[in-house]
Amino acid sequence: MARLDEVLLESDTPSVLVAHSLGCHLVAAWAAHSRQVARVRAAVLVAPSDPQRDDAPPQLYNWRPVVRQQLPFQSLLVASSNDQVCSLAQAAVFAADWGSRWYLLGAHGHINGDSALGDWDAGHALLKSLA
Prior knowledge:
With 131 residues, the protein is of the alpha/beta class. The protein has one domain: Alpha/Beta hydrolase fold, catalytic domain (Rossmann fold, 3-Layer(aba) Sandwich), CATH 3.40.50.1820. The protein contains four helices and four strands, in the order αβαββαβα. It has a four-stranded parallel β-sheet with strand order 1-2-3-4, sandwiched between helices. The protein is globular and about 40 Å long. The two termini are 22 Å apart. The mean pLDDT is 90.
């Protein structure tokens, strides 16, 4: 979280954050504690993981409890209908808690390199819609 503050302080213009998996939780935790939230225009949160799942690996326990505070900037949560690390229902709960708009990508797993999306032009378009 401190490094995110440092990076944001390096720029005079508001930033758009793009986060994947646990990075989505980092954004939520950072936004709940940082004094630099005005430096963020928006966030794209892709395929949040669910560290509270019963089968979550122990290294995710440090992300419990999940920060559920509404983000102080606009955000879009992109989810997959067959993500193996977060159910669609739980992704919808995260979107609601964080005040994020919702975008269901379809069946693309954890929306990563294994998802065969290539350069993911649709993802670039989603990012531009917030920027």
